[in-house]
Structures are given as C-alpha cells and as structure tokens.
Amino acid sequence: MTLEKKIDLPEGMGPVTPHLVCDGAKDAVAFYEKAFGARRLSFVEGPDGKVMHAAVSINGSSVYLNDEFCDMGAVGPKKMGGTPVTIHLTVGDADAWASRAIDAGATEVMPVAEQFWGDRYGMVEDPFGHRWSLATPGEKQLSQEEIMANMEKAMSSGVEC
User: Fold this and answer.
1) DSSP state letters, 14-25
2) What is the CATH topology of the domain spanning 12-74?
3) Each residue of 9-48: pLDDT tens digit?
4) Contact indicator for 50, 27 with CB cutoff of 8 Å
5) Are the C-beta atoms of residues 67 and 51 closer than 8 Å to each other?
6) Residue ranges of the VOC domain (predicted)?
7) What is the mean pLDDT of the chain?
C-alpha cells in the first residue's frame, strides 16, 4: 500500500518543507534574504504584527517560518536551549555561502573543510538558533568502501560528544 498521491505544489514549494519557529520572524526573513539569498514566497502578518506564516525559497527549496506563540507551544530553539535539527543546503560553493551567512550575522559552528565522505562541508547557526549545514559535493563520487576507509581514519582522532 502506498500513501503517495500526486499533488500539484505551488512553484518553489517541495513536498518536505522545514517549518521554523523564530523569535522575530520578520528579522529572520530579512536575515535569510541577506545570508542565503532567500526569495520571499508569502508573508502573512497577524493583527498584532506577529508573523503567522511566511515562506521563502532558498537555493530552490522552500522554508516556512513563523513567530513564537508560546501559549501554543511554538517556541524557537533559543528558548528550548538549542536544537538537534540541522537544515542542510547543497550549494555550489560552501565556503562562499558560509562566509556570506557569517557576514550577515550567523555564527560559525563548524568551519567549511573537506570531509571524509567527499564533500566540502561546514555549519553555521543563524541568529535565531537554527543550524544550517552547507555542502558542496566533491568532484569525484566516492565509493562506499572509500568513504568507510576515510571515516575510519577521521574517527581515529577520538572526537565524541
């Protein structure tokens, strides 16, 4: 049995869309425009000025966001003490994307570097507490065996949580 049913999505929307809660969603939209070149798709403000729903397109994928509504359990990562979720962006130049995000106010979590699986990869945290990984695929597609051998070498450094 399949649960899939063909649906027509609006332009710029994907079937899986991260939905971010931000303390200051208007500022978050402006940050994503500056840091990631986001394109605003929709923006709905409530009578109190809070963002009820916004949608942006980042590098061809959609992201929803809204303001915090604590009485409804909608709180951002900063109020929760952090986030276990990372939003992954595959881009043509991870170094340039990370630099632009940092210049816009993001904090570097993991510097962009060559990784054992073949990507050039790093991570930033935006001013609202959401983490974004930035990856540029390597020119050569590594085999599973190469990735495993590289992983064993990389993990021998003993880094743990």
Assistant:
1) -SS--EEEETTH
2) 2,3-Dihydroxybiphenyl 1,2-Dioxygenase; domain 1 (3.10.180)
3) 777 677 789 999 999 999 999 999 999 999 999 999 999 9
4) no
5) yes
6) 12-137
7) 92
Record the pTM.
Answer: 0.88
Joined tokens for residue 7: 């649906």
Among residues 67, 61, 56, the alpha carbon closest in space to that of 32 is found at 56
CB 141 within 8 A of CB 118: yes
The correct CATH number of 82-156 out of 3.10.180.10, 3.20.20.70, 3.90.230.10, 3.40.1350.10 is 3.10.180.10
Distance from first CA to last CA of the chain, Å, rounded?
A: 40
DSSP label at 74?
Answer: B
Is residue 53 a contact partner of residue 42, using CB atoms and an 8 Å limit?
A: yes
